């Protein structure tokens, strides 16, 4: 198929496998993923839920992304095939459907030139699969290769599917608890509805009472990142960053886009390099944004640990 990449040539496969194993261990400490319903194998994803439903999930299972639109006739041919195969493969991959009309930022970040376009995310790494409708036999071969590489090189064995499980039960099991449960639930609901301002305020309300609350700190950092990138023109931002390597604000904006699109190491590396070659207020601005992005990813992530060491070397 046009656009198919050699998945066996994925870079840094061992590092990605280690990241996936750590993410699964973290999930186990938090209560585990549990079994999912067959209905949960196909999810509609938005800019607000991309980090949770795609990037985080990709540490457990390959996530196949279907970029589509209601007016796209080839999409109406391809999408039902992918949905049926997601059920048939029984948890070996998760299908994430993204409406390009409602989520143009994600379309731009992935560099989608036409639809339907199909990508995969494995252990946080983006892999282009194919563009346009294709024969089912070819789609199956691509999915088989994806599943094989995900298991052998990244250690991803997929999700456990229980036909008797309630749809959405896993998400419900992660409903916030504790004294700030109502505020945290309101923040999550606002995020899912695309109300970033409401989510930010809900998280700030928690932090006003408990400044060290880890879930609220991370949620606020994520919501603020989404709010910053929502109004960006990705092509313009990346061009300015390329044309103006000494412009700290241009590098900060590009790092935000990198992270929002799942390119974690690129975002961290860009800001570490900016810290290295700047001083004074410019250096502080780059350093502080890097610390904010650390919060988005989470302090337990090995990429954050590595970037913290690199930042320390750049500073001292």
Can you give a write-up of this model?
- The chain is an alpha/beta fold and 316 residues long.
- The protein has two domains: 7-170, Glutaredoxin, CATH 3.40.30; 232-315, Alpha Horseshoe (Serine Threonine Protein Phosphatase 5, Tetratricopeptide repeat).
- The chain is 57% helix and 9% strand.
- The chain is built from 14 helices and five strands.
- A five-stranded mixed β-sheet has the order 1-3-2-4-5, sandwiched between helices.
- α3 (73-88) links the parallel β2 and β3.
- α8 packs antiparallel against α9 and α9 (214-230) crosses α11 (248-260).
- The longest helix is centred in the middle third of the chain and has 19 residues, at 136-154.
- Residues 1-14 and 27-33 have low confidence and may be disordered.
Question: How many domain units?
Answer: 2
What string gives the helices and strands in order? HEHEHEHEEHHHHHHHHHH
Top-tier CATH class of the largest domain? Alpha Beta
Classify the helix fraction into a percent range.
55-70%
- Kindly identify the CATH topology of the largest domain: Glutaredoxin
Strand order of the largest sheet: 1-3-2-4-5
List unreliable stretches of 5+ residues: 1-14, 27-33
Strand content: 5-15%
DSSP strand tally: 5
Shape: globular
Spatial extent as radius of gyration = 20 Å
CATH homologous superfamily (4th level) name of the largest domain = Glutaredoxin
Averaging pLDDT over every residue, what do you get? 84
Q: Helical segment tally?
A: 14
Distance between termini? 50 Å
CATH architecture of the largest domain: 3-Layer(aba) Sandwich
Q: Biggest sheet: strands, sense, closure? A: 5 strands, mixed
Secondary-structure-derived class: alpha/beta
């Amino acid at each position: 198929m046009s656009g198919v990449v050699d998945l066996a040539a994925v870079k840094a496969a061992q590092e990605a496998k280690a990241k996936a194993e750590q993410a699964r261990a973290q999930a186990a400490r938090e209560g585990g993923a549990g079994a999912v319903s067959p209905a949960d194998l196909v999810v509609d994803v938005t800019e607000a839920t991309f980090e949770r439903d795609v990037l985080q999930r990709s540490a457990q299972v390959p996530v196949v992304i279907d970029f589509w639109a209601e007016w796209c006739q080839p999409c109406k041919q391809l999408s039902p095939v992918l949905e049926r195969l997601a059920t048939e493969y029984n948890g070996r991959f998760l299908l994430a459907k993204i409406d390009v009309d409602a989520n143009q930022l994600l379309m731009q970040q992935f560099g989608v030139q036409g639809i339907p376009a199909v990508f995969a995310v494995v252990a946080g790494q983006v892999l282009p699969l194919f563009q346009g409708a294709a024969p089912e036999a070819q789609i199956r071969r691509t999915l088989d290769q994806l599943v094989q590489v995900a298991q052998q090189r990244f250690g991803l064995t997929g999700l456990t599917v229980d036909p008797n499980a309630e749809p959405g039960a896993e998400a419900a099991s992660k409903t916030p608890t504790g004294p700030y449960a109502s505020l945290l639930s309101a923040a999550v609901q606002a995020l899912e509805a695309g109300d970033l301002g409401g989510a930010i305020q809900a998280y700030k309300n928690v932090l006003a009472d408990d400044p060290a609350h880890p879930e609220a700190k991370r949620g606020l950092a994520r919501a603020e990142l989404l709010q910053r990138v929502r109004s960006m023109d990705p092509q313009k931002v990346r061009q300015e960053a390329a044309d103006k390597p000494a412009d700290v604000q241009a590098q900060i904006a590009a790092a935000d886009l990198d992270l929002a699109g799942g390119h974690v190491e690129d975002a961290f590396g860009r800001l570490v390099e900016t810290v290295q070659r700047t001083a004074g207020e410019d250096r502080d601005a780059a350093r502080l944004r890097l610390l904010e992005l650390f919060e988005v990813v989470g302090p337990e992530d090995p990429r954050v640990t590595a970037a913290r060491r690199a930042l320390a070397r750049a500073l001292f």
